Amino acid sequence: MSTAPVARIKSANLRQAYDLALAGAIGALVGLYLYVELVDSPAIWVCDALAGTLIGGTIGFFLNASGPSRDGAWLKLAHEATWGTLAGALGGAIGLVVGEYVLGRFQGGLVGRAVSWAILGIGIGLSQGLATRSRQRLIYGLIGGTIGGFIGGFLFEAIRARLGARYDLGQGIGIVVLGAGLGLSLALVEQVLRRAWVQVLRGRQEGRSYLLTGKKSALGLDERAEVGLFGDPTVARRHAEIVVSGRDFELKNLAPSGRTKVNGEVVETTKILADGDRIELGHTLLLFRRR
């Protein structure tokens, strides 16, 4: 692989990590604002449950809306963001209530806060898999949420202790750190553990990567496609599919003859893909990767 594509891929991976970290930070800040403005209950467990619901729901929304909004896939955004919000809210509520109980058992402190927020992170991280109904993303969310929550909780408590009496400022900074840590951890875990994916080398979504997590992944203009490719009139709505066949990944052409190529050769029906293959769909160029 030449130097230029490698540089673009590294840049795209950094962009994805940045986007998810920013989305998580914004989601956490919005959730905290809603909690401060809307929740007023003398019961601690009610406050914890509502705080987890709002913070988890908004983080889940922004994390799951990040990719589809960048693609301009509004139907996919509505679907994934809705499921992400619901799953994040439920996971956040359970995670924060359980986490605060754990914090009490540790009698506070850096480690206690880190462990309690790791539990919160698990609940929110799992929303990634539930939103896309993907087992792989569920695992990545579990790992990334745990790591992000643990680091975020540790830093939250350290910042809060450092600021002393300025609790509101410490809470705000800590919550942003939590959201950013969750988003960053989810992105990095996915990049480290992913087994098969395609990355756009040329096209409107240049740099965007798509996990291939199911037995069959559709590629095309259809917003319901697992790999949605927009802005290229030469790409069909259901242009091709990548199908898992045993240990192989097979590209199946669904478009008119000559509009699907692998490494410059026209694919009329099917083609077994190898790591590093370049897939041309109309004028859009993808790179297939697998481990």
Structure overview:
With 291 residues, the chain is of the alpha+beta class. It is built from six helices and eleven strands. It has helices spanning 3-38, 44-71, 74-106, 109-132, 135-163, 167-193; strands at 196-202, 209-211, 216-220, 227-228, 240-245, 248-253, 260-262, 265-266, 270-273, 278-281, 284-290. A six-stranded antiparallel sheet has the order 2-1-11-10-7-8, covered by helices on one side. The longest helix has 36 residues, at 3-38.
State Rg. Answer: 21 Å
Percent in helix: 55-70%
| Overall residue-averaged pLDDT value | 86
Separate helix tally? 6
What's the total number of strands?
11
Could you state the order of secondary-structure elements as H and E?
HHHHHHEEEEEEEEEEE
Beta-strand content: 15-25%
What ranges have pLDDT less than 50 throughout 5 or more consecutive residues?
none
Strand order of the largest sheet: 2-1-11-10-7-8
Q: What structural class do you assign from the helix and strand content?
A: alpha+beta
Taken from the alpha-carbon principal axes, the silhouette is elongated
Largest β sheet strand count, sense and barrel closure: 6 strands, antiparallel
CA(first)-CA(last) distance: 16 Å
